[in-house]
């Protein structure tokens, strides 16, 4: 049985003269027009691949927005290629700082309207991804931010710890989990980190804090001790993050995560369903990315995606 080839990319978009334009690339070798994407390198996550490939192919530094879908198609080798796509807003600063020059892989970059892209792209599967982006645009939810619900890494078991529960440290596996999720978390461009005061949570966010330079905000309001004693205030924390309209990481505990997801749903006018419960059922070191509209958060949750630690 042949294994599939995995790849990732994004519909990169920006406003030009007040209108949405998307980026297509003209590939040198294939002589085609397509969406920026590339194959997963060993040890990479799909979001990490998307950001890296866009940088390599276009010179643009981006963060990922809402997921747009998956393209699956056969290769000439007989293997199946599976490509995951996101939206990615391109800032004017990123355009100014682009390092792109025509090369042996990409001959040219072109910003086009969605209408133009539909006739300009060489592959119908790319058009389908652009159509998914256009659907977000039609709904007015193209500009997004995310609340990332993160469960702490694997910690010492309570039965094996003599001190207060909040002081239980991460196990070596938990330390590896915390380090392994950094590139994937970075792909979504977190601007704020909020963590339970428990040692296992603070230790879990330490690597992403170091990588981003963000000073984590520690609070008992999403701690397990406060939740079990009835002193937590998850609604206050979630409400602040929704109002801020900036991507944030909320690191907490297994019993608390369902309440965090529930409060995100309530704060955004989203009907609670089984998908909310699934997004909260995280193994240690895993996280769910909840995508919300930056222009109208009350329009509800746009999408949720869950990522596992690579350790």
Helix percentage: 25-40%
Average pLDDT level: 96
Strand count, sense and barrel status of the largest sheet are: 7 strands, mixed
Order of helices and strands: EEEEHEEHEHHEHHEHEHHEHHEE
Shape: globular
Task: Break the fold down into its secondary structure elements and pairings.
Blueprint: E1 5-16, E2 19-27, E3 33-34, E4 37-39, H1 46-58, E5 67-74, E6 80-89, H2 92-96, E7 106-112, H3 114-120, H4 124-138, E8 144-151, H5 172-180, H6 182-186, E9 192-196, H7 199-212, E10 217-219, H8 224-229, H9 234-244, E11 248-252, H10 257-267, H11 274-280, E12 287-293, E13 303-307
Parallel strand pairs: 1-6, 8-11, 9-10, 9-11
Antiparallel strand pairs: 1-2, 1-4, 2-3, 2-7, 5-6, 8-12, 12-13
Short overview:
With 311 residues, the chain is of the alpha/beta class. It has helices spanning 46-58, 92-96, 114-120, 124-138, 172-180, 182-186, 199-212, 224-229, 234-244, 257-267, 274-280; strands spanning 5-16, 19-27, 33-34, 37-39, 67-74, 80-89, 106-112, 144-151, 192-196, 217-219, 248-252, 287-293, 303-307.
